[in-house]
Specification:
CATH topology of one domain: Rossmann fold
CATH class of one domain: Alpha Beta
CATH architecture of one domain: 3-Layer(aba) Sandwich
Helix content: 55-70%
Distance between the termini: 65 Å
Bound molecules: adenosine-5'-triphosphate
Largest sheet: 6 strands, mixed
CATH superfamily of one domain: P-loop containing nucleotide triphosphate hydrolases
Structural class: alpha/beta
Shape: elongated
Radius of gyration: 36 Å
């Protein structure tokens, strides 16, 4: 019988290949002393105040902890077993019990304060680190962000700093305590009975080896879990940001399948890691049990041969019980340290990144400018060998309005990026009032230029705060005056709380036009000599456009302005229209002059007219 063979479906691109998320997790890193010292330097400012207290608490805690087993051995040998002739045994027992109680109390107090101060140091260090990192990232130039997805920057400020938090709040000080405790126990064991001490101490390296080896594997397994979770986060972030596009193209199923894939892979690695974790406990117990076996077997022999008392054997067992704890923790700490080192490496990598655009030594403060701008044979490359601007010559007088026109990718945004010195030109010269932009401080240059971008960025906060972003010391009256001047006041007062209305990040509740008017008010408040508008009127309705046109007149008044606009109707009144093509100026002049030329500009205007 012929069974019909189902025709193979054409292979779709596997969904796993659709989304590629960079793994921002370094699985294994050798210990790096230089970085470790750099990390410890963050503790320095607090070391003098807090470290001595910590040390005292640590020593107190350890001494009290290690004295208790010895007192118990005394109770057994001197009070319980044979009565001491000098003192009635009950009295001695009571005395010892009181002493033990007191010691426990001191130990409790010392530990409480130690934990409190460790947390204080840890939190302060993390606060400083996070602050330093954020401050530094804010200074980095555009080309740094061009190279990295926002998610990867975010992960370093959050996840990596958090993984250091563990090290500073629990780790660093506990290592010290554990080392002191371990050393103390070894000395006491050898003092009580060196033979038995040696027999027990020999098991330590075995225990340490098992603990470290196994923990390395467990750590890797958990790192894999973290890596997979981090991918889920990236996908989640992308999915939420792009939810409108996903729904518009009905890609929910595909997205779900991909998410499912990642989710189950994360679950699998979690199962694996947790299974390994479960092996660890019993294994340590078995080794510990083996140590105890040696202790009692050899201890019993020593008691029989009168080399040890019962009380001392109990004390021994007690010390040995306290012995595994620090060893176990030290192994754990070592792993934690390696993870923290990987994180700190990534953090310091960012901190060492130098902003490309920095004040050169001896840079002057740009005095208040008039607004004359000169581009002299300006060449610019984002990437070496690929010229985005090919020798631009442009002379702009103070107060003139310049419109930049051209096909997509012709270099319009690049020109305005260079004006604010977001990038440095590759060759040529760019001057403002005769000052080369590279010779003046970045702050003094940018404070005299305002930029209004097409995708106006609205920060979460009130409407008032968002306008005030233009000049932080502006009064409420100045803010409202600016809003009135650009026709924004009218819509603001209609909002539920007027100027105090809280807008979500990116201004989701405002329309495009409203966002634009807000950013005009922000720019007007800053009162810059040079104003840059990037496609400011691209996507709004005619009525809002009229309002924006009016606002623009107010905004442009008396300033040098650069306007990038795709709607050519909005730039008809510009003093000078510059037509760019493939990074070079092809035509320039005012609207009438360019229309007469029958060149690119006229072509663009006619094309738009036909389209309308
Ligand atoms: N950050 C960047 N890194 C590398 N190349 C870039 C970068 N930004 C722009 N370019 C390239 O530089 C050229 C000019 O881009 P620019 O953004 O100035 O064009 P534009 O005229 O403003 O285009 P549009 O009208 O589409 O905004 C393009 O070829 C673009 O691919």
């Amino acid at each position: 019988m012929n069974i019909p063979v189902e025709k193979a479906k054409p292979l779709k691109k596997p969904i796993n290949e659709r989304f590629v998320y960079q793994d921002d997790e370094v699985i294994d890193k050798p210990f790096n002393w230089v970085e470790f010292k750099r990390l410890l330097a963050y503790m320095k400012p607090y070391a003098r105040q807090i470290l001595p207290i910590l040390l005292v608490m640590m020593i107190l805690g350890t001494i009290t902890k290690l004295t208790v087993p010895y007192l118990i051995s005394l109770a057994i040998d001197k009070a319980i077993a044979p009565a001491w002739p000098a003192l009635p045994s009950v009295k001695l027992l009571l005395l010892i019990t009181g002493a033990v109680l007191l010691l426990y109390l001191i130990q409790w107090a010392a530990n409480t304060y130690r934990i409190k101060f460790t947390n204080i140091i840890g939190q302060r260090v993390i606060y400083d680190l996070r602050e330093d990192l954020f401050k530094h990232i804010q200074k980095l130039s555009f080309n740094f962000f061009d190279k990295r997805p926002a998610g990867s920057v975010l992960v370093r400020v959050t996840n990596d700093i958090n993984s250091l938090q563990d090290l500073f709040t629990n780790g660093a000080v506990n290592v010290l305590i554990d080392c002191v405790q371990l050393l103390g126990i070894i000395v006491i064991l050898l003092l009580i009975n060196w033979k038995l001490g040696l027999a027990v101490v020999v098991t330590v390296p075995i225990m340490f080896l098992i603990s470290t080896k196994l923990r390395v594997r467990i750590r890797r397994a958990w790192q894999e879990v973290r890596m997979k979770n981090s991918r889920i986060n990236s996908h989640l972030n992308e999915s939420i940001q792009g939810i409108r596009v996903t729904q518009a193209y009905t890609q929910e199923q595909e997205n779900m399948a991909y998410f499912d894939d990642m989710n189950s892979s994360s679950k699998k690695s979690w199962d694996k890691a947790s299974a390994m974790n479960q092996v660890f406990g019993p294994l340590i117990d078995i080794t510990g049990g083996f140590g105890t076996l040696v202790l009692f077997w050899f201890g019993a022999h020593l008691i029989q041969t009168d080399q040890l008392t019962v009380g001392l054997l109990v004390a021994f067992a007690n010390y040995v019980g306290n012995f595994w704890e620090p060893i176990n923790r030290l192994g754990q700490m070592y792993n934690q340290l390696l993870v923290a080192m990987a994180s700190s490496e990534r953090i310091f990598e960012f901190m060492d990144e130098q902003p490309n655009i920095a004040n050169k030594p001896g840079a002057k403060v740009l005095p208040p400018i008039r607004g004359d701008i000169q581009f002299e044979k300006v060449v610019f490359e984002y990437e070496k060998g690929r010229q985005a601007l090919k020798g631009i010559n442009l002379s702009v007088e103070a107060g003139q309005s310049i419109a930049l026109v051209g096909h997509t990718g012709s270099g319009k945004s690049t020109i305005i990026n260079l004006l604010s010195r977001f990038y440095d030109i590759t060759s040529g010269r760019l001057t403002i009032d005769g000052h080369d932009v590279r010779d003046v401080t970045v702050e003094s240059l940018r404070s005299q230029i305002s930029i209004v971008l097409q995708d106006t960025f609205i920060f979460s906060g009130t409407i008032r705060d968002n306008i005030r972003f233009g000049r932080l010391d502006a009064t409420d009256e100045e803010i409202e005056a600016a809003a009135k001047a650009v026709n924004a006041h009218e819509f603001i007062v209609q909002l539920p709380d007027g100027y105090e209305t809280e807008v979500e990040e990116r201004g989701g509740m405002l329309s495009m036009g409203q966002r634009q008017l807000l950013s005009f008010a922000r720019a007007l408040l800053a009162n810059p000599r040079i104003l840059i508008l990037d496609e400011a009127t691209a996507s709004i309705d005619t009525e809002t456009e009229l309002k924006i046109q009016e606002a623009l007149q107010v905004l442009l008044e008396g300033r040098t302005s650069f306007m990038v606009a795709h709607r050519l109707s909005t730039i008809r009144n510009a003093d000078h229209i510059v037509v760019l093509d493939h990074g070079a100026i092809q035509e320039s002049g005012n609207h009438e002059q360019l229309m007469k030329k029958h060149g690119i500009y006229r072509g663009l205007v006619e094309a738009q007219f036909r389209f309308l």
